[in-house]
Amino acid sequence: MLEVAPELANVVLQESSGPALNNQGAAALAVGLAAIGVGYAQRGIGSAAIGAIAEDDDLFIQGLVFTALPETLIIFAFVTIFLAT
Fold first, then answer.
1. What does the longest C-alpha to C-alpha distance in the chain come to?
2. In whole angstroms, what is the distance from residue 11 CA to residue 20 CA?
């Protein structure tokens, strides 16, 4: 997936006809990439939380908090989009 990043940067930053993305497109790209990052983070956190809860039921609240923590990144991204546009 990261092999595509330089090609995407070349398309976005074309000098001949101006940028290929406007402000709304750049904001959508930023939120989409943030959502992919959050999903990647929750993949490991969720599986670790389930494993910890299977071992000890008292860790449910901590597992729930750590699983929900990356979601705040998406909330911040949405707030930033609405403030920027």
1. 60
2. 7
**CA 58 and chain centroid, separation:** 29
What pTM value is reported for the model?
A: 0.63
Q: Pull the structure tokens for residue 32.
A: 């989409």
Question: 22-75 pLDDT, tens per residue?
Answer: 777 778 888 888 888 898 989 999 999 999 999 999 999 999 999 998 888 888
What does the block give as tokens for 44? 């490991």
Q: Which amino acid is at 58?
A: D
Please, which residues have CB within 8 angstroms of residue 54's CB and are 6 or more apart in sequence? none
pLDDT in tens, 1-14: 567 777 766 666 66
Give domain limits for the chain: 24-84
